[in-house]
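Predict the structure of Acyltransferase.
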Amino acid sequence: MLKKILKLALRNSDYSLSFIVLDFLFRKILKRNSGVKWPVHFTTTIHNPEKLRVGKNTYPGDSPGIYINAQMGISIGDNTNIGPNVVMVSANHDPILNSNFLPSEPIYIGADCWIGGNACILPGVRLGDRTIVGAGSVVTKSFPKGNCIIAGNPAKIIRIL
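Done. Here is the predicted structure for Acyltransferase.
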């Protein structure tokens, strides 16, 4: 029976058997990222998945090392790709009392975007459709028009598409 289930899962999935087994182990047995409704890499951490809205064909957390804190809300559009070790944090906290969240704006990422590895997206950022974020970039402000490549620390437009 287990063999049939695994074959069916693999036939209808873009994921390897090892990814499916590890996902099951960490989410169902060890309860890591158990509230997330899509497969995530075992090194990924997603806080407040109920405040994370995800479009079609977008799977935040399937790359290794992603950290997402959706405390104030994060919305990610259709067909958006997220590289390894990306950080998205939608909340700020008091510098002394780490547990006290300060008001901040949610993060909005448009459709058909690509977030390069090791990028960091901070609270209140809005990225328009077809925005490419270069690897290692720190996105501190919004680029709502989209159709651009941004990179750097802080990120700035390096090319209009």
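The first strand starts at residue 45 and ends at 47.
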